[in-house]
């Protein structure tokens, strides 16, 4: 029997999907890209943005029409707000949180599917038709109280089925305690829960031994790791230190990244540790969200621009080669011209290598969803373009400074022009170089930079 799985949203959802794949494979299902032939149809959803939820409704409408011609089971999991969950209960057969993933085989058995332990073939060489019987009692009640962060240890011990053979994600923490007013994550993921450090380190070591080159530590607030288990668990700086020590002890080259940190918990110690170990990538993603203190207060970020400035100054001083990425929102409720101008000035001051600029849209479930979305769309769009121009100006200067240098690059695939391969520098600058050798994909090579644009560079492969 076959399954079709649609992941939506952030890297955490992508990582969760890899563990869902493991459970389905252990149940005897095989993947397919053809929804029409799947017996099991699932979505790893994202309630954080309305566009993500719209995609869920579009897909389940299509799948429920398919039922008129064939038997199938549908399920949805991932980051789901309580209000969305109630609506999904009427549309999907199964609605569950990631910490309930170990129960998925039992949920499916209740639908009358005999889960195969090996491919089942009939006398005529065809897979048998499965008659799915709907249970008389719903598997989930609308009155069920759920805690998305409870018993996460049961989920984390599931070995992921990695989609890539050179890039992997390691979840180290789940949930969020920050309650930024624009964000729904605390309501979809629950409160912060840290994974056991010995599990994290064991998973990382296994990946390195399998020659994975690009490893990203994931969490809603990675640098608050361990704060929920004070006295029982190490902190984030110590976790990075132990990863760095392991990197020094093995004769394998790999880069470790992390996302996303919060400025409130970004300590000088974390920055010092990154500077000391070769495997800890010299790239830091530090969301600013706004360059104005009054706006940061409305966003409930609980840090000031001076606090943020101190972090950036420390990075520039301790790790001068580091690239810095950020997230920033334009058009949040009540944003004045002066507040926006302070954001522009912050972009000018901090000279980011990359910024993910979002035009504010209401997140259902977040505190600000009850506030007026009072900045006109045209104003948001104008401010978006102003910040984009600011980003391009500074990233171009940085990238032009790389011309003539030879950089290490992780090759991740072919460019749209198949005569070129693409990849990332350690600082996650996009680069391409002329080659059609697919054997280089997944390897770290050296490239001499010959030209630059605001968001990418180009060069020539350096052969030993």
List keywords for this structure.
5-stranded mixed barrel; OB fold (Dihydrolipoamide Acetyltransferase, E2P); pyruvate-formate lyase- activating enzyme; alpha/beta; 464 residues; Rossmann fold
How are the SSEs ordered, and which strands pair?
Layout: E1 2-7, H1 11-26, E2 30-31, E3 40-46, H2 50-66, E4 73-79, H3 82-89, E5 94-95, H4 104-109, H5 152-156, E6 167-171, E7 173-174, H6 185-188, E8 193-194, H7 197-209, E9 214-218, H8 236-249, E10 255-259, H9 268-276, E11 283-285, H10 293-298, H11 305-318, E12 323-330, H12 337-350, E13 354-359, H13 377-400, E14 406-414, E15 420-425, E16 430-434, E17 444-453, E18 456-462
Parallel strand pairs: 1-2, 1-3, 3-4, 4-5, 6-9, 9-10, 11-12, 12-13, 16-18
Antiparallel strand pairs: 7-8, 14-15, 14-17, 15-16, 17-18
